[in-house]
Design a protein that fits this description.
heterodimer; A: 153 residues; 12 strands; B: 111 residues; alpha+beta
Chain lengths: 153, 111
C-alpha cells in the first residue's frame, strides 16, 4: 500500500497529477506507429467528492489532442441550465502515490468553470476517488491519499 | 496604449479559435449524437447501464465499462475515425437525481 500526504489548499485537498491520453489510445497509436502526445506534468487537481465526474480546463484538450467522445447538452450549473454544449473528452489521469502511480482512463467534461484565479486545472470527482482512499487530518492541515491494489485488498 | 490594444486583439483571436474548434467538435459528433438520441429508447430496453459506441449512424457495439468501449472503438475504427461513447442511462432518472441533490442542498442552506 502506497500512501502520500498532501497539503490542503484554500479550496480543499490538492493533488499534483499527470494528464495523458488514455491507455487505449496510447496502445492504438503505438500499434499504428504514430506519435504519442507528451504527457502534461504537474497538473494541480482538486479532490472533490461533491463532483460526480472529472472536470478539466479546456486548455488541455489542445495540448494533448484529446478526442471528444460525447457531449452534454444544456449542462446544469449553479446559474441553472446552460444553453451551451459541454464536451466529454477521453482522458488518462495519472496520480503519483509515492512509489506507485494510479492510472485512470475515463471521460472528463471540459471547459469547466475553473476561473483563472482558481488554484487548480482539474477537479477530481467521485468516479476517480471511488477507487482511492482519502484521509483528512484536520489538526495538521493535510490529507493522505492511497490506493490498495487488488493483491493487497 | 498600443500594448493594451495588441493584448486585446490577441485575446479576441484566441477566443475565436476556441469557439471555432468547439463548433468543429460539435459538428464532428452531431450525427452520432442524433443516432444516440434516436436509439436511446431501444437501448434503454435492451442494454441499460452499458456503454454504447457509435460511428455515424451505426452502432459499433456495447461494452460493460468505458475502457472496454474505447478498446472496441479503436479496434474496429483505428485512431483517426471519430466515435461516440456514452453510457445508456435514462435522462429522466439522472435529472431526478440532480433535483434530489439540489433539494438537499437547499435544506442544508435553510437549516
Amino acid at each position: 500500500m502506497a500512501k502520500v500526504t498532501h497539503p490542503i489548499g484554500e479550496l480543499g485537498p490538492l493533488v499534483r497529477c499527470i494528464l495523458a491520453v488514455s491507455e487505449e489510445r496510447e496502445r492504438i497509436l503505438k500499434k499504428e506507429g504514430k506519435k504519442i502526445p507528451d504527457r502534461v506534468q504537474n497538473i494541480v487537481g482538486l479532490a472533490d467528492t461533491g463532483s460526480d465526474g472529472v472536470l478539466i480546463d479546456s486548455r488541455h484538450i489542445g495540448d494533448l489532442n484529446l478526442p471528444v467522445r460525447s457531449m452534454v447538452e444544456k449542462p446544469t450549473t449553479i446559474d441553472g441550465p446552460s444553453p451551451r454544449f459541454r464536451c466529454k473528452c477521453e482522458v488518462g489521469l495519472i496520480i503519483p502515490l509515492d512509489d506507485m502511480k494510479v492510472r485512470w482512463d475515463g471521460s472528463a467534461y471540459t471547459d469547466a468553470n475553473l476561473k483563472r484565479d482558481c488554484q487548480c486545472d482539474l477537479i477530481i470527482g467521485r468516479d476517480v476517488l471511488a477507487s482511492l482512499n482519502l484521509h483528512y487530518d484536520g489538526p495538521n492541515c493535510c490529507f493522505t491519499i492511497w490506493h490498495e491494489s487488488p493483491a493487497n485488498a | 496604449m498600443k500594448g493594451k490594444l495588441m493584448a486585446r486583439h490577441v485575446s479576441r483571436n484566441s477566443h475565436k479559435t476556441r469557439l471555432n474548434s468547439k463548433a468543429r467538435q460539435e459538428a464532428v459528433l452531431a450525427t452520432e449524437l442524433e443516432t444516440f438520441e434516436a436509439k436511446l429508447p431501444s437501448l434503454l430496453h435492451d442494454a441499460p447501464g452499458k456503454f454504447v459506441v457509435i460511428n455515424g449512424r451505426d452502432i459499433i457495439g456495447l461494452a460493460d465499462d468505458y475502457t472496454r468501449a474505447l478498446r472496441l472503438g479503436y479496434d474496429k475504427l483505428g485512431s483517426e475515425a471519430p466515435f461516440f461513447v456514452e453510457q445508456v442511462l435514462d435522462p429522466k432518472v439522472s435529472a431526478r437525481r440532480s433535483k434530489i441533490f439540489l433539494t438537499r442542498v437547499e435544506l442544508l442552506k435553510n437549516g
